[in-house]
Design brief:
Layout (H helix, E strand, L loop, with lengths): L1 E2 L14 E3 L5 E6 H8 L18 E3 L6 H16 L3 E2 L6
Parallel strand pairs: 1-5
Antiparallel strand pairs: 2-3, 3-4
Length: 93
């Protein structure tokens, strides 16, 4: 299992691969390499079609109005594309 919590000072959302998107909300933004580095698992072939936004390797979700909504969507997204259960616990190092 992988922890989505990011506690580094330079992360504004506190959620791994969730970014503030031009003041329009928060979006999951990642590429195939980042997914493998984060979970240790490659994206399932059935979900590779989602990674087509930027140079055929990036995924950019719809905007979510709050960090909480984006966090829940990220948990579901990473579980779906890799089959690995992820969670969010900022107290765990």
């Amino acid at each position: 299992m992988s922890n989505l919590a990011r506690t580094r000072p330079n992360n504004t959302t506190g959620v791994h691969l969730l970014q503030n998107y031009k003041n329009q909300g928060y979006r999951i933004h990642c590429n195939l390499t980042q997914v493998k580095a984060f979970t240790g698992i490659e994206v399932k072939p059935a979900h590779l079609h989602l990674f087509t936004q930027e140079r055929s390797t990036a995924y950019l979700s719809k905007p979510y109005s709050t960090i909480e909504e984006g966090k829940e969507a990220a948990i579901k997204f990473f579980t779906l594309i890799t089959g690995v259960q992820v969670y969010w616990n900022p107290n765990e190092k």
